[in-house]
Amino acid sequence: MVTKFDIENLNIWFKEVRALKDVSLKIQANEILSVIGPSNSGKTTFIRMLNRMNELQYNFRMNGKVELDGFDVRKIDLEPLRKRVGMVFALPLPLPLSIFDNVVYGARMHGINNKNKLKEIVERSLKQAYIWDEVKDRLGVSAYKLSGGQQQRLCIARTLAVGPEVILYDEPCSGLDPISTAKVEETMLKLKEKYTIVLVTNNVKQAARVGDRTAFFLNGELVELDKTDQIFTAPRDKRTDGYIRGKFG
Amino acid sequence: MLVRKLKELIIEKIIFLCGVLSIIFVGLIFLFLLKEGLALFKFISPGGFLFGKSWYPISEPAQLGVLPLILGSLIVTLGAAVISIPIGVGCAVYIAEVAPAKTKEVLKTGIELLAAIPSVVLGFIGMVTLVPWVKNIFHLPTGLTALSGSIMLAFMAMPTIVSIAEDALYSVPKSYKEGALALGATRWQSIYRVMLPAASSGILAAVMLGLGRVIGETMAVMMITGNAAVIPQSILVPVRTLTATIAAEMGEAVVGSEHYFALFAVGIVLFVISFAINVTADLFLHKKR
């Protein structure tokens, strides 16, 4: 197994509030790592560290080690880092453009302008996001015409079009109906053959369905990290047990 | 019971009156303007007024062609637009997207102060600093030119443009920017390709409102544009605007004379132009809400 992200003793503060406390974990290549925990547990802060989105906030401070393929992420330039580590947000966020233009948006930004190349990218990304069959005959229509679930898969395609190695999902199904959710999850399971996936979710069952391993965060601490089966059948920590049984959170 | 109901009724009526009062005033002003202005056309034809090339209101017979004044207003406004739009929008982008919190506060206060300077003061400062400067740089016989007016008016349009454009940028959801950044966009790419297009209707409205302010401005232009009512051949000659004409001549026009009615007709022209600008701005402003 290849280690993709290596995180050691990571501490993060916003102003004086400590958002993460001494978090250490490794993310393996081609796994789906689910991150669960109640709100305010630091799970979003954690994945936003992986593509350095936290730095958009004022008063952000950190120490510790975050390495991607053995390189400190803080020493990688922001744009190439975010190209390698893509992100899918909670709410689908298509731009007011056609489906085609939405998908190639990032690719164009990175300087690809050849028409055939762009077409190729669109087809490949939409197929990878399992939405190609639903939209292939209407690539020119506005992305707003799609349903919420389709929009989210379009956003996944947009992320894929840039050519990432890692995909971060930040509660990707919180605004979707169960059928769309199932489709997005199916997409994830297929994508892990080629990509490394980190999934932050409030839906404990979703973590159980798709995660190879699951990490449980509470109050900024990594309480437990183990194989998903292990976490959901015999967690070692009482707090994990309480959370997945829905006793709090 | 009856007393209470009566009270309600009276208060309701009073509030209603306050509400419609502003509309009544606008209507009355417009009616008065129309009545006085249209009286001009007993003396000359509308075409002769709008497209007449010379404005000599007190010669005998009076020549009342408003074209030089319209062109004067337009050239000053155009010049002001060319200067104030790029600077104003750039400033708004800087304040909304780039500046650190403290700089932002300082800049916003500065912009508000700029808006608070009375136009006569700006005109005066322009007269003693800008006018000689324009004269020397371009080797002109006089610095009282359309260009001086444009530069001065650009300063007046900027606060409007900056604050409304900044509002428009600020109201673009933060997630748009994050989405672009997460795809690996640079800060400039996210501004240029996501923020500006998303805020475009608000920015256009800002520009239109800024220009509305420019075209209606009187005092400063009267002080520094030279007030020569001739058709301008370039931006480096003295011009006379619609507003300055009314302000300068109304005091001397004999009530009920051709000249008097012509000034009201100029007022109508001005009203129509700024009304059109404001309506356009409104259309842009409400387009996306």
Description:
Chain A is of the alpha/beta class and 249 residues long. Chain A contains 10 helices and 10 strands. Chain A has one domain: P-loop containing nucleotide triphosphate hydrolases (Rossmann fold). Chain A has helices at residues 43-50, 78-84, 99-109, 115-128, 132-135, 148-161, 178-191, 204-210, 228-233, 238-244; strands at 3-14, 17-28, 32-36, 60-68, 71-72, 85-88, 166-170, 196-200, 213-218, 221-227. In chain A, the strands form 2 sheets. In chain A, strands 6-7-8-3-9-10 form a 6-stranded mixed beta sheet, with helices on both faces. In chain A, helix 4 crosses helix 6. Chain B has helices at 2-38, 46-51, 67-98, 101-116, 119-138, 146-170, 174-182, 187-198, 200-216, 219-224, 242-249, 258-287; strands at residues 55-56, 63-64. Chain B is an all-alpha fold. In chain B, helix 1 (2-38) crosses helix 12 and helix 11 runs antiparallel to helix 12 (258-287). The mean pLDDT of chain B is 90. The relative contact order of chain B is 0.15. The longest helix of chain B is centred in the N-terminal third of the chain and has 37 residues, at 2-38.
Task: From the structure above, extract its key features.
heterodimer, A: 249 residues, alpha/beta, Rossmann fold, 10 helices, B: 289 residues, MetI-like fold, two-stranded antiparallel ribbon, 1% strand, globular
